[in-house]
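User: I'm writing a tutorial on reading structure tokens. Could you give me a worked example: one chain, its sequence, then its tokens, then a sentence or two explaining what the tokens reveal?
Assistant: Sure. Here is the example chain.
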Amino acid sequence: MRVAVLFSGGKDSTFATHVALQQGWDVRYLVTLLPKRNDSYMFHHPCAGLTTLQAEAMGIKHVVKETAGEKEKELEDMTAALKSVAGEVDGVLSGAIASRYQKDRVDAVCKDLGLRSIAPLWGKDQHILLKDEIAAGLQIVMTAVAAEGLDARWLGRKIDNDAANELALLHTQSGINIAGEGGEYETFVTDAPFFRKRVDLGAIEKIWDADTASGYIICKDAKIVSK
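And here are its predicted structure tokens:
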């Protein structure tokens, strides 16, 4: 099957790509929407511009489209981006896990374009899924946080099994989404087994807003390096 991946650069869309390759599917394109707003309903904002480096590291063609990041209008931009590759793929992969808002909209766009909507992570136990992503060899970095219990110390932190267990504990204590699908946090994958090269984020600058107890990182000198 020929597929395009709705790709944010985070752990879930990267793992969905990994799953597709494991199935022997032909991943033709990574499709990234770059929101101009940091509070986009559908798409990642921090480090999203660095997806070009990930695509190069994977050796997969990359389609990038800016979106205003406004609710529902984002769908028009996603439709335009997917329409540009629709003639070369049979389906679209997304990293949706439990967000009905996200999956329903991707499903609807794909239906309109005559494409199959595929969500290989849908309905998975979030703690187990995060452990699976780590076990698969994804090198995951937290790029943004906006939830109780996630402070500036999490920014730039590598998500390993210890971090996954801490997130599970925070879920028990305050109800955060372990996968971060409710906007609690965002991630970026610097390396995976199917990457030909890896991404070096270089110096990380942390931007923290004490009033909202939220923050994100900026990586101005990220680059591709050999493994």
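What the tokens reveal: The two ends are 29 Å apart (CA to CA). The mean pLDDT is 92.
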